[in-house]
Amino acid sequence: MIRFVSRPRAVLLALLCALALMPALAQAQVTDLNAAINKAGRERMLSQRMAKAYLQLGQNVDMTRSRRVLDASVALFDRQLVELKNYAPNADTRATSLALEKAWIAYKDVLIGMAPSQERAPQVLQLSDEVLALANTLTTQFEALSGTPAGRLVNLAGRQRMLSQRMAKLYQALHWNLPAGRMREDLALARKEFSAAHAELEAAPLNTDKLKRDLQLTSQQWFFFQDALDQKEQDAMTRATNVASTSERILEMMEEVVSGYEAQR
After folding, report:
1. What is the pTM of this model?
2. d(CA 178, CA 172)
3. Over the stretch 108-158, which tens digit does the pLDDT of each residue have?
4. Exposure string (b/e) for 37-51, b if CB count within 10 Å is 16 or more?
5. b/e string for 202-231 if b means 16 or more Cβ within 10 A?
6. What tens digit of pLDDT does each residue of 95-107 get?
7. Which of 44, 120, 211, 247 could tie 135 with a disulfide, CB 3.0–4.6 Å?
8. How many CB atoms lie under 10 A from the CB of residue 143?
9. Which residues contact 213 (CB under 8 A, 6 or more apart)?
């Protein structure tokens, strides 16, 4: 049985997993606005990724990777939030960082306090969206301070990371037969927004040759991810596992794209 307890060793292992699984994330403290946009945008993504992993663990979907994803994401969110609070250059970003910290404390308590359950899952979904909204506000505040084409593209590409995890989260929630509400409509909207933003990124004048290649690879992963979301022939557990794995692959590609835009000045 998975034990949801807090131990220094577990936190250290989670942080090591985060760095090992996503080398692009192993960066220094925030030193400029592009990096701030990237990391605030990544907090936005992590809000959805953690909920996805929670739902997968509750359903015994891809257990080893889901446990690793949740631990690594919690540790990474904590670390980046400290960096963003330390960097916040004005009163607005400082206020939003503090509000995000407050929402994060409540969210983390539900995520790691007890083993995942259907009864607590709706609360996880609600808190994940509250953290998402605040992280998005912080990201857009940094983008406004930047006022550059590169800053806008870091935000836009970073939002694609979030959408990849949001789609998977919504799929897993529906798979667990949680109260649907607007989840089907939200999933369809996220798919539409991802496709539209990807076309915009492909047409961006700032694209380097590497960015063009990475976006082409992302197109391929988007095809596989959509196929996983649409599949009907496989059994339910196989479908859920395929969504879990393809959402991670497209996230890895989008990390490369965001890093490419972040490097531009």
Report:
1. 0.89
2. 9
3. 999 998 899 999 999 999 999 999 999 999 999 999 999 999 999 999 999
4. bbbbbbbbbbbbbbb
5. eebeebeeebeebbebbeebbeebbebbee
6. 999 999 999 999 9
7. 44
8. 23
9. none
